[in-house]
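Fold this complex.
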Amino acid sequence: MEYIIKNGIVFDPLNKIDGEQMDICIKDGIIVESVSKDAKVIDASGCVVMAGGIDSHTHISGPKVNTGRMMRPEDSYKEVYLKRGLKPGTGFSVPTTYKTGYQYCEMGYTLAIEAAMPPLKAKHVHDEFVDTPQIDKAALTLFGNNWMVMRYLKEKEYELCAAYVAWVLKITRGFAIKIVNPGGTEAWGWGKNVHGLDDPTPYFNITGREIVRGLCKVNEILGLPHSIHVHPNDLGHPGNWKTTIETMDCVKDIEPKPKYGERETVYYNAHVQFHSYGGTSWKDFESKGVEIAEYVNKSDHVVVDVGQITLDETTTMTADGPMEYDLHVSTGNKWANCDVELETGSGVVPFNYSPKGPVYSVQWAVGLDIFLNTDPSKVILATDHPNGGPFTRFSRIIAWLMSKKYRDYWLNEVVHKWARTRSSVGDNDKEYTMYEIAQITRANQAKVLGLSLERGHLGVGAIADIAIYEINPEEKDPKVIERAFRYAKYTFKKGEIVVKDGEVVKEVFGDTIYVDVKIDESLKKELMKDLREVFKKYYTVQMENYKVPEYLANNWKVIKIDNSQIS
Amino acid sequence: MEVILKLKEDIIIPVELDALLPEKMEGMDVEEIKDIEIPQGRTTVKVGDLFDVEIEESDIPRMTIKNSSFKLKRVGEGMTTGEIVIEGDVGMHLGADMKGGRIVVNGNVDNWAGQGMKGGELIIKGNARDYVGSAYRGGYKGMSGGLIVVEGNAGHEIGEHIHGGMIYIKGNVGYFTGIHAKGGIIKIDGDVLGRLGAEMIKGAIVVKGRVPEVLPSFKYEGIVENPVIKLKKKEEGVRIEGVYHMFTGDYVNKKPKGQLYISVDRNPHLG
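Structure:
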């Protein structure tokens, strides 16, 4: 099938195209130079054309998301998705798999990265991916509290650790290294947490600094497309901004060496909004978003995603078990907790970010502080769905960023006064341009994930994942912006029209992307010897049953990396 | 205007009647009301298929349901004004999310009566089942205003997550009355099976009947006579007659302010 998208105003930051009126040609799912006369014409005059959106940090699949769904029938009651020809779905903050896929697609998004996959529970993650339509998916495998990783890093066996990471990524069909509260989730197994980067975890006696630095080195030894993806220590604690900067700083001397893609950074700080808090308690709590932004601006090795608070009632879920316990104690809300054997843990707590709450209002302002002060090529739009708010609010965040007036309306009329006095959002006049919106919603993601060869841009050869929004690039009316980015005029997935006028018109099932790194045979042998012993001694499953089977995807898309020379 | 609905014959598959609020039907004629679509099971039917409809004069928006049965659900859901009178029994979610007006049931009601109620009056002349004035399943916003009176008995978890308003049960109740309460007053004239006010943070529960035992996480405060229940500092308070054992709790929470008043006469074994 051939298409030609005519007269659209194209924003494609990876190819440095800033609002040029041009035609995009699609043939067999790929963007091409030209098409034949038979190509179907899509009139995009007066519309903005961008590559398909990418959410590089979201929680849409797997055991903790499902726990969220199960423990929150009242969330299901809040929103029902019922459209002819589509699978019905429910849930506002923890939607069902089908609803998740449809709604991402309605917004012009075509790739979402599940940000926390415990290796042992990988089958569950992939099984839900099978039922998540419309988008491509990938999952980040959790390594930050893994016994094998901590053991190897403590012994400074970086090659063995790399071999282990490569093996787990292949076996669990993971995409990159995720680190959550390094050392902290393991400490939670002892009823404790770690505080700061240099607080050692019990028994393994390894600090967050050693884990982050070690895994960063391992990441570059392996040459993975994505950098390490880090949720640092002390999430959500007043005064944690120092830990955040320390953690960013501890890997600045490591060189990026991806063997696939065009990544230039070595450190991805997830939901940095939750890590940019000043003060010493909730009473003198304040925004340090500007300080974090300044650090990011002057460093070449860091990219951050914001994890913006949208001030909704939502469900928090993370592999940071102790943090969720703190949240449960402070709110009195119901709480689910899980310990994943040798690997990680997790927790789930419903949470209501009321705009009237002083602390929540400051949290909201912290996110905006980071957006408004960071170089748009280093910041990524995400809500850490559903922790900061559901992904369906992305368009509202875009409206806050593009319209100073709308932002000020929320600041002065909607939220608590602390947001005005304890942040600098009110003083900032920056308004995002359409080009910058394209950067923070697709281009930056594609680049840092190492997928920019074929995704996140509209150059010839790219996969034809395209979003067309009915909006004038100079538009300032927040209502129009919010509506336009919530419901795309067209979404193309692999060269097919899947959304028209905000309605899903075709159900398609995307790929699941994973990384397969080939490592040296003798190194693998050594690793297997250790692994067999660990499985025999500690795991509740046999090594043979640990593997994610071939059938748990609609279509696997493997990124192969040959690294057999390291030993 | 008063709308009189008479169920033609007993139905097996339940119907949901949240579309039939007196305030919404005000000004409609009989044919229009007969044409209103209501869900029955997985299909939709029209009011005229199941009910005989009549209209009479009335100065307030009113609705009367005759021949009512447990199969009529969500009656008066989201109601803000007017009056609904039900002759017979009525099904689940009676007066759920109700904000004002008055519902009178001359019969028994099924579970979840007055779920998430915010205002108005709900008078039940017969018995009620579980979760009177509770939150939606899994939710944490129960009844926050208004009055529920049950003249018969009620089931378990009455006033679960109650925030405000008052529930008055003249008969007996089951387990976990006022569980997770954060405000409001629950008054019970009859006996209680037990586990009163588990995990309550605020609010008050008054029991005139027998209570086999109080949870060990409650603190005994002594005997009080004709106490005045004050839930907020500025409130005038509600005075209740009689001599009561007073307990505070539930101390599984930090700094709880929940109050239990349990009749001394019927419960000499407490205290």
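Chain B has three helices and 21 strands.
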